[in-house]
Specification:
273 residues, Protein Transport Mog1p, Chain A, alpha+beta, 21% helix
Length: 273
């Protein structure tokens, strides 16, 4: 395998166990996929430098290997960890920029000859199978998700808006689209809640105000003219012609008995008054 022999020769003096050989193999597969090694550990270090070689101290711990990589275009950062569990080595790879994760468990004895650690021609077994496992189990998971994100087109601002009809904006008064056959979205003047319509729709062409005028609410009028006065209650001329007027009682009739709107005298506490 081109390049792996040179890499293995550069670290042969520091290889002490079969796990080291397997980490070296996976390292080269990552490099072949377009990444360079930055260093060891979880956090960036001042000594970080892109390289195809394994950094110094990469196998100080035979129980946990931690290596960091960066893609050639500086877009992707990989954190690769290998944990020794009995006779297996568990690889965990995470793309730091997207937090996408992949993992692979490899039985060390299936791919490394522990009796020939210093002989490159004999140290690895079933290399094609191991390459397929590393590419499909680790790298393809990360690179596949990265490719999918690139292919997925980014939505324009118009496409990101909710799927509503363009003329159904509930905050627009009145709606942009006229409704056929009736007033666009507003109650009929004869409706009991028509009071205050002009305050909500300043272009409706009707007088404003929230005061309910029983003589101008749209209901049939009794023909009563408040400027003529109310016998026994209001003298003629007390209400200017055309003024809004609330007749405080039935027109032309005297309400018998005490008026429930009247307040009791001060200090008088009788609920039956």
């Amino acid at each position: 395998m081109a390049g792996l022999e040179l890499l293995y020769s550069s670290v042969a003096d520091s290889i002490a166990c079969p796990q080291d050989c397997l980490v070296c193999f996976v390292h080269w597969e990552v490099v072949r996929s377009g990444y360079k090694c930055l260093g060891i550990g979880d956090e960036p270090q001042p000594s970080d430098k892109k390289s195809e070689l394994l950094p110094r101290g990469w196998n100080d711990s035979r129980e946990l290997y931690t290596l960091r990589y960066q893609s050639s275009d500086d877009v992707s950062l990989l954190l690769v960890k290998a944990i020794t569990v009995d006779s297996a080595l568990i690889f965990n790879m995470m793309d730091v920029t997207t937090e996408q994760v992949s993992d692979l468990t490899v039985n060390v004895s299936d791919y490394v000859d522990a009796d020939n650690l210093l002989t490159f021609d004999r140290v690895f077994k079933n290399t094609k199978e191991l390459t397929t496992k590393v590419q499909s189990g680790l790298l393809s998971q990360i690179s596949g998700q990265k490719t999918e994100r690139k292919k997925k087109p980014e939505k324009s601002p118009k496409e990101r808006t909710p799927d509503l009809e363009p003329d159904s904006d509930p905050l627009r008064i009145p709606p942009r689209r006229p409704l056929v056959g009736r007033d666009p979205g507003w109650p009929d003047p004869m409706a009991p809640f028509a009071a205050g319509r002009a305050d909500l729709d300043p272009f409706c062409g009707q007088p404003g105000g929230m005061i309910v005028d029983p003589l101008r609410s749209g209901f049939p009028r009794s023909g009563f003219d408040p400027s003529a006065g109310i016998p026994g209650r209001l003298p003629p001329g007390a209400v200017p012609p055309g003024a809004r007027f609330d007749p405080f009682g039935p027109v032309g009739q005297n309400r018998p008995g005490p008026d429930p709107d009247h307040m009791p005298p001060p200090g008088y506490d009788d609920m039956f008054m």
